């Protein structure tokens, strides 16, 4: 059905060509933003680190060197070359734990955004497409969820489900999902009035096809921007839950959990406190930089359409 | 002229203020309330029972011995079921803005204090909706006390259903604090019963002044105190739940004394010339209780072998940072009747492996439960479980670590047929060995709702405990408890982990602080140098 | 206008009912038994357990419990804490001022710094100031504030010793609560040094709490300004030769402030979430820490009513933001 969009185009392009053109156009805008490129590079590096963790990490993240408790980083007095960033209270290598921790953060981000995105899109589509009381009920429920501060709601949800990584991810996804639902609904409602939708409907497109094939692709831009935003918030919030003892449970090397464990050493071993936080900051920053670039690159197109 | 007088009085006031000695204690938790009877947390008692109230009997400072308190003396009947207390005369109740006592402490107050806890008909039994008397109930006082009678204004007679050796220690516990009947009547007349819990009136060394929730409690010295009046004029509790923050405040001079330092900070504190560190073996034990009804843990030799496979010293070093005594008995060494002749199982993975094989146990996999919270007897259960996991893997035992949310953990660990060994501990209430052994290891407590999480029922062991409970002679009781500990060691229902050491860091200006083996913090004898 | 407000209020009713259902049902399905938690290591006999459960009303059917809960709620009774046995509302009210003081201070810091920085960055678009401030804003926006707080404590309290570690005021000062705001009460008390002491205690937590809102406000102000500066009427004003400061001060700023005010208002949710972390780190005796503690203690009535109060609060503030928005932007009202 999407060909119909291009009927007026002077040259008839194939789908693949359109896609290629769109991507190159997107890349052109994205490249303009230097920060975004830096962010993307860092992000790609993070992904690589996460995938190559078993190769990169000098030690196992949970192996305890009982003769090396709280060894400072290598450049400080008392540091050992075997432990570049020092060790924690039970003698685990900080660097290895940080490297493995990247797996958690990325995994959390991907899972949370996927659940929230899919759930939000389906709910938003339903609300926007059917309108009436369906819309009313759904949107009231979303309002209710949004009335609670997200972290507080996630905390209570985790308390209900039981502390742990999976439950933390589910809780955060549930809390984020209304944003996607609202966006989708708003986009659907504005798209519904457009000619191409009417045309498709007249042409006899089924409801599902209309929802997912015709309308959804045209609402994607704001959803992508929201998804990157949620990705970074998910990393932050899951770390916060870990810090409050409600997220990933020790001994998993999740950064927030590491920080929580390190709190009692705040006066004695700065490295166990500093590095995990820095790792969180860097990854969230990289994702946000990339997200900014994405938004800038997608925005002009939004305006033009 | 008026102005001048005002000025003079201000001057006088500020002069007095300069001399006033204010002592600041960085406490670890907000008190649940200020009525000692309905609550169970140690932090609550430090803020209510100890500064504000007294009991008929008291623990002698720094010991678990019982000495006279509001009761000057007592007689015990031949059969050990009747206690007649002679009450102290001339003991003044505190006063505050809304209450001025018209009479001294007397027998009515004693009767009221016990009756409101034990008698559901007493109007003060439920003076706040949902209030319960958990300590009174769990110490089985209701089953024990038959009646409390007033003989005259200064004589009270307690009649018990059966002889109970630890009774005098029981009534020295915080829940048995004596509250004012006259104050209760006044509150009832005014319809403000809840004030009993918000604004306490007691007979203790300090008067309650004000409480700002989760922040500060203020007390002032009780000049009419019947004992030795405190040296300091004002006592302040600065509520600081975080151990690292407490230490920071102590170092910065924002408080003078703090409880429960993080084990990691002990060395720093020792090295600081401005701080003093008092230490004492705590009245507690941390343990790993096997499920002695589950195969192969129903075999004492298997339990013994597993005990030998775990490196206890390494746990004490890594988890407690050395701030604990490796435990060999279920009761701590500061407690009377501790059997020091018992030898601990030596750490010997080779022998342990051989023993397991001899019992036909190979490829064993088990669960170890680690509680999700920090407890006074166990700073980090998860870390301990990880260490055990590694040790046991060396003798071919695969360990899976299990954890639940704290309330769930407590519930599930009590369920019969529980899979795995559970880590837990105990802190003594009244310094009596019965309070450890009967509560944690007797047949009676192995049933539903009991605290015997090994589900271990040894008839011989339980019989020794029951004999000791009705024996009045301390020497005889000691012998019985010592024998019980021998059986415990042979049967090994637990892996005894450690008795954590209690540390109390304080400013070097502080003098006169006495550590309590029961873990109480009391400040009626402290002084600070300017 | 009255109609506008009324319709908005009416709209809140179903949301509020939804909130009560969520607050109630979440808390009722929390695992862990408050009765067992109170008993601790000691354990509790089955009979006693049943007795206590009945006493607390947890033996009834959940739906009945909900109606009980609503019935009491309508009478203004939010229940009693299981831990302290005190009315939840009393506890909330005694801790609330601390959180409000912290939150207000944070939002003031965020606005006072964020708005001018955003405006300047927009005017000098592409300059080094723009780049540095917007990079800083993005770092702030990405900050795990629980870690940021720890770092500041290590630096300012630990190493430099400039600020106190925790609490709201030095214990030397003791005066009655009048407003519940330390800064104001300390002035009323007239005690020398009290105000300074309160301020010194407040500064680190409010800086930490202000971090994210500050970043959001600065970024939002900048983009709102940029948008307005590109509008026709601004260009016209410039073309007419109106001086730069007047263009910005009168036309641009006023219009750019509409979305910014909304942004500031919407930060309340962010602040509440931040307060949970900030108060935990600084042992600040406020609502956030109270909620965390109550969740871990399974203090059902407190979690339940606390959730409800906080959500209601967020709702009311959002309503106020809506109304303000309607006031400064009449177009919306007419629609």
Write the SSE topology.
The complex is a heterotrimer of chains A (305), B (530) and C (335).
Chain A: H1 15-32, H2 34-51, H3 53-56, H4 94-130, H5 132-147, H6 150-161, H7 165-192, H8 195-202, H9 207-215, H10 220-243, H11 255-262, H12 270-304
Helix pairs in contact in A: 1-12, 2-4, 2-12, 4-5, 4-7, 4-10, 4-12, 5-7, 6-7, 7-10, 10-11, 10-12, 11-12
Chain B: H1 2-19, E1 22-25, H2 42-47, H3 49-52, E2 57-59, E3 66-68, E4 71-76, E5 82-87, H4 107-118, H5 134-138, H6 141-144, E6 145-152, E7 155-160, H7 167-170, H8 181-190, H9 195-198, E8 206-212, E9 216-221, E10 234-238, H10 243-251, H11 266-271, E11 275-281, E12 284-289, H12 300-309, H13 312-318, E13 324-326, H14 349-358, E14 365-369, H15 381-393, E15 398-402, H16 406-414, E16 421-427, H17 434-441, H18 459-469, H19 474-491, E17 494-507, E18 510-511, E19 527-528
Chain C: H1 2-28, H2 34-39, H3 46-56, H4 62-74, H5 88-123, H6 128-141, H7 145-159, H8 182-189, H9 194-229, H10 232-239, H11 244-282, H12 287-297, H13 300-328, H14 330-334
- Give the overall silhouette of chain B: globular
Which percent range fits the helix content of chain C?
Answer: over 70%
Round the mean pLDDT of chain B to the nearest integer and report it.
89
Distance between the termini of chain C: 12 Å
Q: Main sheet of chain C, how many strands, which sense, barrel?
A: none
Biggest sheet record of chain B: 7 strands, mixed
Describe this structure in words.
The complex is a heterotrimer of chains A (305), B (530) and C (335). Chain A has 305 residues and is mostly helical. Chain A is built from 12 helices and no strands. The longest helix of chain A has 37 residues, at 94-130. With 530 residues, chain B is of the alpha+beta class. Helices cover 32% and strands 20% of the residues of chain B. Chain B has 19 helices and 19 strands. Chain B has helices at residues 2-19, 42-47, 49-52, 107-118, 134-138, 141-144, 167-170, 181-190, 195-198, 243-251, 266-271, 300-309, 312-318, 349-358, 381-393, 406-414, 434-441, 459-469, 474-491, and strands at residues 22-25, 57-59, 66-68, 71-76, 82-87, 145-152, 155-160, 206-212, 216-221, 234-238, 275-281, 284-289, 324-326, 365-369, 398-402, 421-427, 494-507, 510-511, 527-528. In chain B, the strands form 5 sheets. In chain B, strands 11, 12, 13, 14, 15, 16 and 17 form a 7-stranded mixed sheet that branches. In chain B, strands 1-10-9-8 form a 4-stranded mixed sheet, with no helix packed on it. In chain B, strand 14 (365-369), helix 15 (381-393) and strand 15 (398-402) form a beta-alpha-beta unit. The radius of gyration of chain B is 25 Å and the shape is globular. Chain B starts with a helix and ends with a strand. Helices cover 77% and strands 0% of the residues of chain C. Chain C has 14 helices and no strands. Chain C has helices at 2-28, 34-39, 46-56, 62-74, 88-123, 128-141, 145-159, 182-189, 194-229, 232-239, 244-282, 287-297, 300-328, 330-334. Chains in contact: A-B, A-C, B-C.
């Amino acid at each position: 059905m999407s060909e119909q969009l291009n009927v007026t185009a002077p040259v008839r392009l194939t789908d693949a060509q359109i896609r290629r053109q769109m991507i190159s156009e997107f890349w052109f805008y994205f490249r303009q933003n230097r920060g975004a490129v830096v962010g993307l590079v860092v992000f790609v590096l993070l992904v690589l680190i996460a995938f190559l963790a078993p190769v990169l990490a000098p030690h196992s993240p949970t192996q305890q060197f009982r003769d090396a408790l709280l060894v400072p980083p290598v450049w400080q007095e008392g540091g050992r070359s075997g432990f570049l960033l020092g060790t924690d209270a039970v003698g685990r290598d900080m660097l290895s734990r940080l490297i493995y921790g990247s797996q958690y953060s990325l995994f959390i981000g991907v899972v949370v955004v996927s659940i929230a995105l899919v759930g939000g899109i389906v709910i938003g589509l339903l609300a926007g497409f059917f309108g009436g009381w369906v819309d009313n009920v759904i949107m009231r429920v979303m309002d209710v969820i949004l009335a609670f501060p997200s972290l507080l709601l996630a905390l209570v949800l985790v308390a209900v489900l039981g502390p742990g990584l999976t439950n933390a991810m589910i809780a955060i996804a549930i809390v984020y999902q209304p944003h996607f639902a609202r966006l989708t609904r708003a986009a659907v409602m504005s798209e519904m009035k457009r000619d191409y939708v009417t045309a498709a409907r007249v042409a006899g497109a089924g409801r599902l096809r209309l929802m997912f094939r015709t309308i959804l692709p045209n609402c994607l831009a704001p959803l992508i921007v929201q998804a990157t935003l949620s990705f970074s918030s998910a990393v932050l919030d899951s770390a916060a839950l870990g810090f409050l003892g409600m997220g990933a449970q020790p001994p998993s090397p999740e950064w927030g959990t590491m920080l929580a464990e390190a709190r009692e050493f705040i006066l004695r071993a700065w490295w166990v406190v500093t590095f995990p936080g820095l790792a969180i900051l860097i990854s969230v920053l990289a994702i946000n930089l990339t997200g900014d670039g994405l938004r800038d690159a997608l925005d002009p197109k939004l305006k033009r359409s | 002229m008026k102005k001048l007088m005002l000025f003079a009085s201000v001057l006088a006031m500020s002069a007095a203020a300069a001399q006033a000695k204010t002592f600041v204690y960085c406490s670890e938790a907000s008190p649940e309330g200020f009525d000692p009877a309905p609550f169970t947390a140690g932090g609550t008692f430090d803020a209510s029972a100890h500064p504000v109230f007294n009991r008929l009997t008291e623990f002698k400072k720094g010991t678990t011995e019982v000495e006279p308190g509001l009761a000057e003396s007592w007689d015990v009947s031949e059969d050990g079921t009747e206690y007649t207390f002679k009450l102290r005369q001339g003991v003044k109740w505190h006063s505050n803005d809304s209450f001025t006592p018209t009479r001294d402490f007397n027998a009515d107050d004693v009767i009221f204090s016990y009756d409101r806890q034990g008698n559901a008909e007493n109007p003060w039994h439920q003076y706040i909706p949902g209030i319960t008397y958990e300590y009174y109930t769990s110490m089985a006082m209701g089953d024990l006390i038959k009646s409390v009678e007033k003989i005259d204004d200064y004589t009270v007679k307690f009649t018990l259903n059966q002889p109970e050796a630890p009774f005098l220690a029981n009534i020295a516990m915080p829940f048995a604090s004596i509250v004012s009947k006259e104050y209760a009547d006044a509150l009832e007349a005014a319809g403000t019963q809840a004030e009993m819990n918000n604004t306490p009136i007691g007979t203790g060394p300090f008067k309650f002044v004000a409480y700002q929730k989760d922040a500060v409690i203020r007390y002032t010295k009780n000049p009419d105190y019947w004992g030795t009046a405190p040296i300091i004029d004002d006592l302040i509790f600065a509520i600081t739940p975080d151990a690292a923050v407490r230490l920071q405040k102590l170092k910065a001079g924002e408080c003078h004394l703090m409880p429960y330092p993080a084990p990691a900070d002990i060395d720093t504190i020792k090295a600081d010339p401005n701080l003093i560190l008092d230490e004492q073996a705590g009245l507690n034990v941390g343990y790993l209780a096997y499920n002695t009804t589950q195969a192969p843990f129903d075999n004492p030799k298997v339990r013994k072998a597993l005990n030998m496979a775990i490196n206890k010293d390494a746990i004490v070093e890594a988890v407690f940072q050395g701030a604990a005594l490796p435990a060999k008995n279920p009761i701590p060494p500061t407690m009377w009747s501790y059997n020091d002749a018992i030898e601990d199982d030596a750490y010997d993975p080779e022998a342990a492996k051989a023993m397991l094989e001899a019992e036909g146990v190979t490829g064993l996999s088990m669960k170890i439960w680690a509680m999700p919270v920090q407890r006074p007897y166990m700073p980090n259960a998860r870390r301990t479980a990880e260490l055990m996991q590694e040790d046991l893997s060396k003798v071919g035992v695969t360990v899976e670590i299990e954890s639940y949310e704290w309330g769930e953990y407590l519930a599930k660990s009590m369920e019969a047929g529980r899979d795995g060994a559970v880590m837990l501990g105990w802190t003594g209430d009244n310094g009596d060995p019965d309070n450890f052994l009967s509560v944690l290891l007797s047949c009676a407590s192995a049933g539903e709702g009991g605290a015997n999480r090994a589900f271990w029922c040894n008839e011989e062991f339980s019989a020794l405990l029951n004999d000791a409970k009705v024996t009045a002679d301390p020497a005889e009781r000691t012998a019985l408890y010592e024998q019980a500990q021998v059986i415990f060691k042979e049967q090994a229902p637990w892996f005894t982990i450690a008795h954590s050491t209690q540390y109390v860091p304080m400013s070097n200006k502080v003098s006169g602080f006495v550590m309590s083996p029961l873990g109480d913090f009391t400040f009626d004898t402290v002084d600070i140098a300017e | 206008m009255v109609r506008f407000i009324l319709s908005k209020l009416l709209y809140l009713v179903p949301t509020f009912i939804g909130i009560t259902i969520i607050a109630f049902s979440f808390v009722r399905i929390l695992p862990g038994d408050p009765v067992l938690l109170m008993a601790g290591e000691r354990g509790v006999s089955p009979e006693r357990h049943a007795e206590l459960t009945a006493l607390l009303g947890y033996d009834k059917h959940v739906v009945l419990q909900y109606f009980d809960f609503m019935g009491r709620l309508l009478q203004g009774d939010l229940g009693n804490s299981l831990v302290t046995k005190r009315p939840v509302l009393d506890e909330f009210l005694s801790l609330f001022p601390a959180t409000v003081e912290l939150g207000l201070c944070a939002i003031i810091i965020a606005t006072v710094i964020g708005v001018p920085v955003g405006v300047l960055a927009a005017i000098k678009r592409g300059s080094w100031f723009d780049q540095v401030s917007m990079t800083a804003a993005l770092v702030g926006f990405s900050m795990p504030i629980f870690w940021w707080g720890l770092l500041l404590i290590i630096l300012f309290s630990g190493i430099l010793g400039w600020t106190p570690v925790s609490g709201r005021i030095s214990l030397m000062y003791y005066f009655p609560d009048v407003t519940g705001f330390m800064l104001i009460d300390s002035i009323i008390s007239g005690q020398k040094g009290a105000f300074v002491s309160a301020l010194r205690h407040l500064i680190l937590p409010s800086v930490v709490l202000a971090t994210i809102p500050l970043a959001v406000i600065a970024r939002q102000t900048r983009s709102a300004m940029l948008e307005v500066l590109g509008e026709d009427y601004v260009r016209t004003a410039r073309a007419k030769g109106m001086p730069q400061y007047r263009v910005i001060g009168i036309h641009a700023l006023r219009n750019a402030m509409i979305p910014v005010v909304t942004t500031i208002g919407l930060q309340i949710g962010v602040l509440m979430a931040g307060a949970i972390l900030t108060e935990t780190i600084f042992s600040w005796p406020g609502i956030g820490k109270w909620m965390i503690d109550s969740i871990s203690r399974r203090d059902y009535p407190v979690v339940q009513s606390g959730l409800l109060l906080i959500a209601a609060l967020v709702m009311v503030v959002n309503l106020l933001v809506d109304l303000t928005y309607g006031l400064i932007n009449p177009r919306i009202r007419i629609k």
